[in-house]
Amino acid sequence: xxxxxxxxxxxxxxxxxxxxxxxxxxxxxxRVVGEGDVAAQVRQVFRNLRVALRAAGAELEDVVKLxxxxxxxxxxxxxxxxxxxxxxxxxxxxxxxxxxAGLVHPAFRAEIDALAVISGAPAxx
Length: 125
Prior knowledge:
Layout: E1 11-12, E2 16-23, H1 38-55, E3 63-70, H2 76-83, E4 94-99, E5 110-118, E6 123-124
Parallel strand pairs: 3-4
Antiparallel strand pairs: 1-6, 2-5, 3-5
Helix pairs in contact: 1-2
């Protein structure tokens, strides 16, 4: 396998799977966070992911797969920097990143969905 930059090729895990729908940069009152600032939006998305995961009995550390949607690939460095504030850069989940023409709200620049596994420590490779 070729070297990776910011993800794991595969993550093996055993336990209960938690699927989290795509999270967007809305706060708890439904207001857009960080309009025009992708790093602020990604931070809000990860805060939302954390809340959704905890509601299902999981944590961000239990995430084994992320699917990231960005409206501009130029935002990739800012995405990675913000992501690494929430996830251990030495133990990143398997990931897919897709550039999209737009998201459900024109101010959104990022959306992320996740799969987590509760119980059993995932082994990244």
